[in-house]
Write a structure and sequence with these properties.
By secondary structure, the chain is mainly α. The protein folds into three domains: 3-41, Single Sheet (N-terminal domain of TfIIb); 117-210, Orthogonal Bundle (Cyclin A, domain 1); 220-304, Cyclin-like (Cyclin A, domain 1, Orthogonal Bundle). It contains twelve helices and five strands. The strands form two sheets. The chain has a three-stranded antiparallel β-sheet, with no helix packed on it. The longest helix is centred in the middle third of the chain and has 20 residues, at 117-136. The N and C termini lie far apart (82 Å).
């Protein structure tokens, strides 16, 4: 579009007649000349009003888009929902005479969101998944991954003959492994309504059928979380990581439970850094027995040549 400099300003003009009377038609996405009718641009982008939001409430009011699509809701969050606030779009209260009608609309809206057996299954399973993930304090990406794994299991008809809770728990455990946020089977079972044995059985079956690529967990994956729960400093955490690095180089971690090895390394580093924690305290956080920590502790100190004064 030709621009003519007038003084210190650049003014847009029509390339056909030179008119300055240009109109932006946001409905059609066109920029046109008011005098001769020439369409100058037919893919005009509405930049929208410039505004700033100073808090969350203002941001929500001024936002021009909806919530992002999510796999943690059975319809991916694409359907609308009639609010329980009994207020219209202007924020005014709905008159009492119309509330019965609104109640009926709300009830039917809730019913038609879940139209068949598959959606009913997904609605129940994903609400259970969200409950478990909240109880375990898992981040958003793990929830989305677990929801995707569960959806794949439903599409492959792997739910038949298994409990919904068991498949949900197994999906969540697999998602934790996939996203590098490891949780032990006991932790998952503690938040679930099914036992550890059933979750383990379902989990062993799912990666094979869904072709999930899951790497085995390493002791290093647990160090940060265990140290945080034991309220240990970064120095202890770094020392434990060094011990585990030396142990893995000498192949002392292979064939042993990662949580037990991680717990033993943290126990040793806490003593070396003068932030001593008892074997009982470390065992409770790691979910292993004191005997396991003692055995791994002896192996690591002997093979790595670490001298500890008890």
């Amino acid at each position: 579009m030709p621009k003519v400099r007038e003084g210190t300003e650049e003014v847009e003009r029509c390339p056909e007649c030179g008119s300055r009377h240009l109109v932006r038609d946001y409905e059609r996405g066109e920029l046109l000349c008011e005098d001769c009718g020439l369409v100058i641009d037919d893919q005009f982008i509405d930049q929208g009003p410039e505004w700033r939001a100073f808090d969350v409430e203002q941001g929500e009011k001024r936002a021009r888009t909806g919530a992002p699509m999510t796999y943690t809701i059975h319809d991916k969050g694409l359907s609308t929902e009639i609010s329980w606030k009994n207020k219209d779009s202007y924020g005014k209260s709905i008159p009492t005479r119309n509330r019965a009608q609104l109640y009926r609309l709300r009830k039917w809206q809730r019913r038609i969101r879940v139209s068949n057996a598959t959606e009913r299954n997904l609605a129940f399973a994903l609400s259970e998944l969200d409950r478990m993930a909240s109880a375990m304090g898992l981040p958003r990406n793990v929830r989305e991954t677990a929801a995707m794994i569960y959806r794949k299991a439903v599409n492959k008809n792997l739910i038949r003959g298994r409990s919904i809770e068991g498949v949900v728990a197994a999906s969540l455990y697999a998602a934790c492994r996939q996203c590098g946020v490891p949780r032990t089977l006991d932790e998952v079972a503690g938040s679930s309504r099914v036992g550890r044995k059933e979750i383990g059985r379902t989990y062993r079956f799912m990666p094979r059928e869904l072709k999930l690529k899951l790497m085995p967990t390493k002791p290093q994956d647990y160090v940060q979380r265990f140290c945080s729960e034991l309220k240990l400093s970064g120095e202890v955490q770094n020392k434990a990581a060094e011990i585990l690095k030396d142990a893995s180089e000498k192949e002392l971690t292979s064939g042993r439970g990662p949580t037990g090895v991680a717990a033993a390394a943290i126990y040793i580093s806490s003593i070396l850094c003068n932030e001593r924690r008892t074997q009982r305290e470390v065992a409770d956080v790691a979910g292993v027995t004191e005997v396991t920590i003692r055995n791994r502790y002896k192996e690591l100190t002997e093979k790595l040549g670490i001298e500890i004064q008890l």
